[in-house]
Design goal:
This protein is mostly helical. It has helices at residues 56-117, 122-179, and strands at 33-36, 43-44, 49-53, 182-184, 189-190. A three-stranded antiparallel beta sheet has the order 1-3-4, with no helix packed on it. Strands 2-5 form a two-stranded antiparallel ribbon. The chain is rod-shaped. 7% of the residues are buried.
């Protein structure tokens, strides 16, 4: 006779459970774990914060670089102001030398006229000629000095700007390292 009754059966098997996707997370630099956010067995979403690594050294480095960037900015400003002041000073000296030259040219012309009539000596004419030549040399030297001051100052300013740029790039690198102290889940899953 056939009757209905519950049938009990079980199947035993052994095996290994393998995850569909597995990833091992590592720090790009040697660091201590500052804080663990997610626990083993916890379900996480992609991008969710798992742990925070110690970032004190990176932050100190960023502070130092920030100060160096600011220092270079101030140095650029100081060099620009110094250049402008030097150029103004030399320009004033050039103006005075041009006035002296004009005055000495007038004296020379007067001594030449008077020398032709015998009222003044040849020594006075030669002294006036030398004064004119000395003024011309001084003017040329001051004008060359303006060019040299400008070139030197612009070179120093470019150097300070380059140094500032280097510090800014180092700051960007530190910011990248700081972002890496935030360890996040690469995909949805269970820890």
């Amino acid at each position: 006779e056939v009757r209905l009754a519950p049938l009990e059966s079980s199947i035993s098997a052994s095996g290994v459970v393998v995850p569909v996707r597995e990833e091992q997370l590592s720090s790009p630099s040697q660091s201590r774990i500052h804080k663990v956010i997610a626990k083993a067995g916890q379900t996480v979403k992609a991008g969710e914060l798992l742990m925070v690594l110690d970032d004190k050294a990176i932050r100190v480095s960023m502070d130092n670089l920030g100060e160096q960037v600011a220092q270079q900015s101030l140095r650029v400003q100081a060099l620009e102001q110094e250049m402008e002041a030097s150029l103004r000073r030399i320009a004033s000296e050039v103006e005075l030398l041009e006035l002296d030259l004009q005055s000495n040219l007038v004296k020379l012309a007067r001594f030449k006229k008077l020398g032709a009539t015998g009222i003044t000596s040849q020594v006075d004419v030669q002294a006036s000629e030398l004064a004119v030549k000395r003024n011309e040399v001084q003017l040329r030297q001051h004008k060359e000095s303006m060019i040299d001051v400008r070139k030197t100052a612009l070179s120093n300013i470019a150097s300070a700007r380059l140094q500032k740029s280097i510090f800014q790039k180092q700051m960007e690198l530190q910011e990248s390292l700081l972002a890496q102290t935030q360890v996040k889940a690469p995909f949805d899953g269970i820890l």
